[in-house]
UniProtKB/TrEMBL annotation:
GO terms for molecular function: transaminase activity. Transmembrane segments: none annotated. It comes from Actinoplanes ianthinogenes. This is Aminotransferase DegT. Coiled coil: none annotated. InterPro entries: DegT/StrS_aminotransferase, PyrdxlP-dep_Trfase, PyrdxlP-dep_Trfase_major, PyrdxlP-dep_Trfase_small.
Length: 366
């Protein structure tokens, strides 16, 4: 949902003469961190780069193993390879699509150094259970919160209490800056290093150099990256942040309407809130069980034929050519979800009649 306010904010940033990482980025970091209950925010160019920096922060390196869900956008696994480590795929819970303590423990080895747990499609994972288990195992826990802005776990925002979390502001997310991401941490020293890592390892930012009335001779403390967000993006993000609560409330109302309309269709199981939290319904997926009389791909084809833009469910990285060289443990739930689920349209302009039309087709195909 983008409107005139976002357009005006971007234009104001352009007119200000400061378009690179600057004061609007700093403000967006501060306000976003406060919204998700984190101590510090570090804006970056994408959630993928946020995940990469989170692993660098923890010192993950070649020879290390990092447990990840295969059931996630491929960026989750790719970030592990960026640091030369080995992704180890774990299975997920059928209801939430998320890692559990049990599925992680099943693939944990002496070489495991970290876990990347995803709040899949905005459905929060069991933050209390996974954080406690990771601490007990002595493993770093990186939270892939790409889709989770506005979701809650145990009564607090999904990012509250995370040692490090990575967020996405891609247009398919509830809050967008076009492209962009954020790393949130509670530790102040970690935030300082993350800011260096996103800006070539410089010990003073470009914005701070330009604010100084005296020449600043910066130093480059380590080999790092160019992962910065622009002030134009941050200006849009600040407007979006003001919309977030309303957008989540609207999405939850629309999801409730889907639940009402889908009730009683044999063989179709829609995503729901877990017992310990609430989802922002970034994605509204439905799982087709053997009792449903039409297979998933036929359903997608029929919906498309009738003008409905649904899409396949969440991908499984271990089934992609890029990971053909990785030997994965059996992942039956992952393969069931990626094979038998689809994502229904859910957006701020969808109408009650639209939802009735979509569900009518699903009911007919059942």
């Amino acid at each position: 949902m983008l409107g005139e306010e976002e357009a005006q904010a971007a234009a104001d940033a352009v007119r200000s003469g400061w378009v690179a990482q600057g004061p609007r980025v700093a403000q967006f970091e501060k306000e976003f961190a406060a919204t998700v209950g984190a101590g510090h925010g570090v804006a970056v160019s994408s959630c993928t780069t946020a995940l990469h920096l989170a692993l660098v922060l923890h010192g993950i390196a070649p020879g290390d193993e990092v447990i990840v869900p295969s059931l996630s956008f491929i960026a989750t696994a790719n970030a592990v390879r960026y640091v030369g480590a080995t992704p180890i795929f774990a299975d997920v819970d059928l209801a939430t699509g998320n890692l559990t303590v049990e599925t992680i423990d099943a693939v944990r080895t002496p070489r495991t150094r970290a876990i990347i747990a995803v709040h899949q499609g905005g459905v929060p994972f069991d933050t209390v259970g996974l954080r406690k288990a990771a601490e007990g195992w002595g493993l770093a826990l990186v939270e892939d919160a790409a889709c989770a802005a506005g979701s809650t776990a145990y009564g607090t925002p999904a990012g509250t209490g995370a040692a490090v979390a990575a967020w996405s502001f891609h247009p398919r997310k509830v809050l967008t800056t076009g492209e962009g991401g954020m790393v949130t941490v509670d530790d102040a020293e970690a935030a300082v290093r993350l800011r260096r890592l996103r800006e070539h390892g410089m010990n003073v930012s470009a914005a701070d150099r330009h604010k100084s009335s005296q020449p600043v001779l910066e130093a480059y403390l380590e080999t790092a990256y160019n992962y910065r967000m622009t002030d134009i993006q941050a200006a849009v993000g600040l407007v979006q942040l003001g919309r977030l609560a309303g957008l989540v409330a609207q999405r939850r109302e629309l999801a409730a309407r889907y639940h009402e309309l889908l009730d009683g269709i044999d063989g179709l199981v829609p995503v729901r809130d877990p017992a310990y939290g609430t989802t922002n319904y970034q994605s509204f997926w439905v799982l087709l069980t053997p009792d449903y009389r039409t297979d998933r791909d036929e359903v997608l084809a029929e919906l498309a034929k009738r003008g409905v833009s649904a899409r396949r469910g969440i991908m499984a990285a271990h089934l992609e050519p890029a990971y053909a060289d990785v030997t994965a443990a059996p992942l039956p739930v992952t393969e069931q979800i990626t094979r038998d689920s689809l994502i229904l349209p859910l957006h701020h302009k969808i109408t009650d009649d639209d939802q009735k039309y979509i569900v009518g087709i699903l009911r007919e195909l059942a």
